[in-house]
Amino acid sequence: MPRVFTTLRRLAIAAAVLALFGVSLGTSAVPAGAVSDPYEDDPLRLVPFADSVQHVYTDGSDVWEVWICQVPGWTVDVDLADTVANLSAIITPYFQWVSAGAYQPVFRAGGEVTSEDNIPTNPQQQDGLMAPLCQQAVSEATSGTANAALIVVAAGFNEGAGTAGAVCPEPPFSGCTTTYPQNFRYALVAAGTVTATPPQIPQWGVVAHEMGHALNWPHSYGGLNVLPGTNRIDQYDNPMDVMSGGALGAVPVGAIAYHRYVAGWIDPVRVVVHRAGTATYTLTANAGAGIQMIVIPIENERHFYVLGARRNVLYDATLPATGVEVYEVDQRSTVCNMPTGWPSHWPCFATLVRIAQNPAVQGTDGTAHVLAVGTTQALGDVRVTVDAANSNGFTVQVLADRPGFRFVDDDGNPHEANIEAIADLGITRGCNPPLGDRFCPAQTVTRAEMAAFLIRAMGEEANLPPFRDYFPDVARGEWYTPYVERLYEVAVTTGFQDGSYGPAAPVSRAEMAVFLVRAFGLSGGLQPAIGLFADVPPDAWYASHAELIYRQGITRGCVADPLGYCPTVGVHRDEMASFQARALGVPQG
Length: 589
Hints:
Layout lengths: L13 H7 L29 H5 L5 E11 L9 H19 L4 E12 L17 H10 L6 E6 L6 E4 L22 E5 L13 H10 L43 H6 L8 E3 L3 E8 L8 E5 L5 E8 L12 E8 L23 E4 L12 E2 L4 E4 L2 E8 L3 E8 L15 H9 L22 H11 L23 H9 L19 H11 L23 H9 L21 H11 L6
Parallel strand pairs: 1-2, 1-3, 3-5, 6-8
Antiparallel strand pairs: 4-5, 7-15, 8-9, 9-10, 10-11, 10-12, 13-14, 14-15
Helix pairs in contact: 7-12, 8-9, 10-11
């Protein structure tokens, strides 16, 4: 089945939605700084603008008007009455279950429209579902009394797009209305989501996913996977969440605890915020009695971990794993791209919030963030242990001191403070652009990465040259090319004897010693090697460099007794952080 590309995945805010319709934002849509405390509506201070954005449509009935839009080149037969009946029979019970009875989408027939949208018939050309003329036709034909429109584009595949429409974070919505089309709230789904398009059966998970966006739910995704043939992050790598890979199926899986809390479906009294010390909790799964979410603060109300329980029951019966899920929720404005003109003190909110599995994994079906019974995971200075399972959920022990970090994957790493130190200096920007929220501490540093680290540490990034073609294996247009070429110009590298640079090759500790001595102007301190390290012969080409950085306190060796340097071992990114912090005189450990 083709992957679902939600074209409007991070645009469910007024700026983006109004832009789609060629309407500029006015002061009524963005009350410049009018809300002094974005968290004032949430007693636990976890959800920005809880009453005026997140809870607008999530309590009680939510009326969806269903439309069929015929497009050129496709002859898929979609029956409106059958579609409404199926939505009522399949999607309504799903949301009633996931909301514990708090939310009931109501579907009613709108009608049928025709547009001239160009929807590719070649699957290789389908990258999201954009049908602006369908949207325009429905907005003109609707009665204007529903809360949202569900537009079925009669094309024979199964993608979708969804938006929560205009959001106005100030009661009473600063002139915004809650009816379509004035609120711009709709979901687009292709016909393959609601009717059989052989060999595929209907993909109801896609429908639930796009409706989730219309409830202001963001994706959850690790950030380590890139869509094939693109440089875009794959936001569908979490099979446990309907707002990620869990949408890719005939039956939607449930929603993570954070989404349910954001919607108001988990009462704050069923949430524990664990700040310090040791405690044991019974964490229950969706709709269970007792605690349904554990929150572990990282820095402040904008940055925290969330733990939730998942069991193989009802809509979660097909989950690939059961246990306690671990997510990092980050609402810091530096993490998301807040639209120009929105108050600077506002956190990320709605679909802009960054939610990541912890740990994230390569691939799209990993469940390493789901802790089974008997599993312990360190979250910085916090240790979470799943002790036992019962009929409703899991017994969880949390042992915590206060953690804090910039990257989501260096928490508790012995080099964490130095990673933070070089990040503060702009030497590292993470390992997963464009997000930059991961450092990948255990990965071996490549010679390409080495060039970037050193050029930034030397303050030479402003002097990056145009393409010079110094090395045959350093091509024009590669991200690392100007760094490598500047490294050559400042005489830190001469490349290999064959004239190549080897950008993908790992950096050994022997090479690292030479790089550091040259880059940080330490060559004047070089002395004949005396055999300081048991595993470094005094006549080795790098011996004097390794001994110098030991005397300078940049390295402590790799083995204490006898003192060893491990010259052939590759340098990990976390070790590199400490090497550089010490060389720069800013070590934090």
